[in-house]
Amino acid sequence: MLKVLLPVDGSDNSRKAIESFVQRQSWYRERPELHLLNVQYPLDGNVSLFINQTDIKQYHQDEGLKCLQNTRDFLDQTGVAYQYHITVGDPAEMITRFAGERSYDLIVMGPRGKGGVSGLLLGSVTGKVMQLSTIPVLLIK
Predict the structure, then answer these.
(1) CA–CA distance, 140 with 137 (Å, rounded to integer)
(2) CA distance 137 to 42
(3) Which domains does the chain have, with CATH numbers?
(4) Full-model pTM
């Protein structure tokens, strides 16, 4: 079975890419196994001096769930099975590392996310994932 990683940053572009991919599942002989991934940026500065690790971890979990909520609602309404994951770090590096460590077959992304556009055509995270990934990346507009 095809294992697909769908990075979600809470933007309209990532939601549209996932909705479009779900509509194209008939392209595959069997339904792919879908995994949503939200990557939270680490907190700046010396926050850990003032806030304990449990609270920081809970904050990242809560913020990640907020970013995933619209996509999870859509998949639940359409009856599409999925798993979700939340991690912390540089988004492009974490997406490619996560995909490699867990042996995904495909990464599906929109061309731009919340970060805006750093290049002429692609968002900075998408462009960096395409450079770093040894796994095929499917861009869906």
Answers:
(1) 10
(2) 25
(3) 3-139 (3.40.50.620)
(4) 0.88
Question: Tokens 């900075």 label which residue?
Answer: 124
| Structure-block tokens of residue 92 | 């492009």
What are the tens digits of pLDDT across the range 91-139?
A: 999 999 999 999 999 999 988 655 444 444 556 888 899 999 999 999 9
Stated as kind and residue range, the H or E segment containing 137 is strand 137-139
Distance CA 54, CA 130 (A): 33
**Residue 128, both tokens:** 């960096």
Q: Tokens standing for 47?
A: 């926050």
Q: What is the residue whose two structure tokens read 């770090």?
A: 89
Backbone angles phi, psi at 53, to 5 degrees: -60, -35
Other residues' Cβ atoms within 10 Å of the Cβ of residue 8? 26
Q: Specify whether the CB–CB gap between 60 and 4 falls below 8 A.
A: no
